[in-house]
Amino acid sequence: MPELICYTIGHSNHTTEKFVGLLRQHKIAYLADVRSSPYSQHVPQFNKEVLDKELKKAGIQYLFLGKELGARYTDSQLFFDDGGVDFEKVRNTPNFKAGINRIIDGINQNFKIALMCTEKDPLDCHRFVLVSYALKMAGINVIHILDDGGTVTNEAIEDRLLQKKKKNTAQPSLFDGPEKVVRLKEDLLEEAYRERNIDIAYRVEEPEE
Question: Does domain 5-155 have CATH number 3.40.1010?
Answer without folding.
Answer: yes
